[in-house]
Design brief:
- This protein has a single domain (2-151), classed as Helix Hairpins (Orthogonal Bundle), CATH 1.10.287.1700.
- The protein is 97% helix and 0% strand.
- It is built from two helices and no strands.
- It is rod-shaped and about 130 Å long.
- The protein starts with a helix and ends with a helix.
Length: 152
C-alpha cells in the first residue's frame, strides 16, 4: 500500500509538472505569435514607406529628404533584423518548451502505465489467492467427505 501511495504522489507531481510545462509552452507560443505579428507589422510598414518614398522620389525631392528616406529605411531594416533575431530566439524557446512538455508527458504516461500494471498484477494476485482458498476448501471438503465415508 505504501508503494501505491508513493506512486500516487509521483503521479500527482508528474501531472503538476506537465501542467507547468503546458503553461510554459502556451506562454512561449504567445510570445512567439506576438513577435511574429510585430515582425509582420514592421515588414508591412517598411513596404508602405518604401512605396511612399518611391512616389515622392518620382515627384522630385530634395537631397536631404532623399537622405532621410534612405536613413529611415535603414532604421526599419535594422529593426526588422532585430525582430527576426527575436523571432528566431523565441522559436528556439518554443522548441525547448515543446520538448520539455513532451518529456513530462512521457514521464506521466510511464507512471500511469506502471500504476495500471501494478493494479493489474495486484488483481491477478488476488484472483490466485481466492482460487487457492477455494481449492483448499474444496480439498478439505473432499478429505472430510472421504474420511466420513471411510468411517461409515
Amino acid at each position: 500500500m505504501a508503494d501505491t501511495a508513493n506512486l500516487d504522489i509521483l503521479l500527482d507531481l508528474a501531472r503538476q509538472q506537465l501542467d507547468d510545462a503546458a503553461l510554459g509552452l502556451r506562454n512561449a507560443a504567445d510570445k512567439l505569435r506576438l513577435a511574429q505579428e510585430q515582425r509582420q507589422q514592421l515588414d508591412s510598414y517598411r513596404h508602405d514607406y518604401q512605396q511612399r518614398a518611391q512616389q515622392s522620389l518620382g515627384a522630385g525631392v530634395s537631397a536631404s529628404n532623399y537622405r532621410n528616406f534612405v536613413q529611415f529605411l535603414e532604421t526599419l531594416d535594422n529593426a526588422i533584423s532585430l525582430q527576426n533575431k527575436t523571432v528566431n530566439q523565441l522559436e528556439d524557446a518554443m522548441a525547448h518548451a515543446r520538448s520539455t512538455w513532451q518529456q513530462k508527458k512521457r514521464q506521466l504516461d510511464a507512471y500511469d502505465a506502471l500504476k495500471t500494471r501494478r493494479a493489474h498484477a495486484r488483481l491477478q494476485e488476488e484472483k490466485r489467492k481466492e482460487q487457492r482458498q477455494t481449492d483448499e476448501r474444496a480439498s478439505r471438503r473432499t478429505v472430510l467427505q472421504t474420511s466420513s465415508t471411510a468411517f461409515s
